[in-house]
Design a protein that fits this description.
single chain; mainly alpha; two-stranded antiparallel sheet; 4 helices
Length: 99
Amino acid sequence: MLIDIRMPERPVDVTSKVELLERFERSATTGRTALNGLDDEGLARQIPTAPGVSKPLAWVLRRRVMNHLIHHRGQLSAYLRSLGESVPGMYGPSVDEQG
């Protein structure tokens, strides 16, 4: 199975925390579905990472995609906090959720 790593759509402005979290959850679900469809051969497939450089898809997913996701999750937390919004739990309940 091939995984499409291109952006499926242009990002849009969101107007609420609920909408932002819903969009994030839809995106995460799409990613989980794609990953569940991969086998060892698919993860070992070489994909270009720079001109003249290729890496296995498993490497790209871990080193590029997951680290990028973690970075943006941190940004989201900082933005929510600066807006006075509660921050949802990521690795268990957040301080906001614990009351």
